[in-house]
């Protein structure tokens, strides 16, 4: 029998890879809950009884200005560092840069990491979110597709209220990868006087047509699954096949060709089952994608994927401004943009282009490109390459 190849599925299971290079934060963390009786979206619609989870690492200074906010990526949550229990197999996804003596130094900074509305994984026991899978207090049933459309700006506005409740006076920095990077950009536009520095990782200040196209490919398998039933599936058979295929596509587009070559080569899924002999006999990469999607689907919710997908598609810092340039001009924070060399979703060329625009408009911006075989996921797996740059940036 061939030794099974451990498959790194999407962003979530990147934990074991990135934490193998450094000691975990020596802290047992607690998932906390922030609640509001009502939250008004940028659309003007109101959501009652809103809840999101968050975690904190380190201690806040009496002045409330040593705070760094971490915004999570598309399929992640607020578990950025530490462990919930000593026997957890791995710590949070960015533990390698969070902790004493690390770039996000918990001896200096108070780190807050927040969940978003419509988190992709509402079935996960450590995810706290309000979204289409939540019960509408007016009906006693899940919202489904009656939940209002949400935006990245809504995520940021809710985080601002969370920080206010904690007594935060100003953010030393805000950072995040992928969708977390989108939130980072939104922060410095929406709250320019509240944020001193920003570190958007593998993200751009607007979602470009290439990624919009990918987003449709991620969403359509769910809508094409008959069990989706226009979002009315709660209490019934769920569109699991559509969710699995959606997550398979997301996984593949978030990776790089080097990862596939090194992880699978042209090996068969089973040593005894030659793909030439039968249509159902697969290659190892096929089998790994299927198993990864099935594993991830256990905690995911189909409608939540669609809502999160829509929020990302709508993102553009120019929203609410006469032009993109006017939005950039409103920024006061220093910015460190970090890309990944093989990123298919936010290509480094696009990140560099925006960095140049920021510079031309007089913004204090710097740029760093990570080298990784993991495509978009390089923003997580190779983040230690940016350790020195992040430390120096925060110390400026």
- Which structural class best describes the helix and strand composition? alpha/beta
Strand content: 15-25%
> Numbering strands along the chain, what is their spatial order in the largest sheet?
1-2-4-3-7-8-9-10
Order of H and E elements? HEEEEEEHEHEHHHHHHEHEHH
Report the C-alpha radius of gyration, rounded.
21 Å
> How is the biggest beta sheet arranged?
8 strands, mixed
Task: Give a concise summary.
By secondary structure, the protein is of the alpha/beta class.
What does this structure look like?
The protein is an alpha/beta fold and 396 residues long. 32% of the residues lie in helices and 16% in strands. It has 12 helices and 10 strands. It has helices at 15-18, 152-166, 179-190, 209-224, 240-254, 257-264, 284-297, 302-313, 324-329, 348-360, 378-381, 387-395; strands at residues 32-40, 46-57, 67-71, 110-114, 135-136, 141-142, 171-177, 195-201, 334-340, 365-370. The longest helix is centred in the middle third of the chain and has 16 residues, at 209-224. The radius of gyration is 21 Å and the shape is globular. Mean pLDDT is 93; it is low at 1-22.
Topology, please?
Blueprint: H1 15-18, E1 32-40, E2 46-57, E3 67-71, E4 110-114, E5 135-136, E6 141-142, H2 152-166, E7 171-177, H3 179-190, E8 195-201, H4 209-224, H5 240-254, H6 257-264, H7 284-297, H8 302-313, H9 324-329, E9 334-340, H10 348-360, E10 365-370, H11 378-381, H12 387-395
Parallel strand pairs: 3-4, 3-7, 7-8, 8-9, 9-10
Antiparallel strand pairs: 1-2, 2-4, 5-6
Helix pairs in contact: 2-3, 4-5, 4-8, 5-7
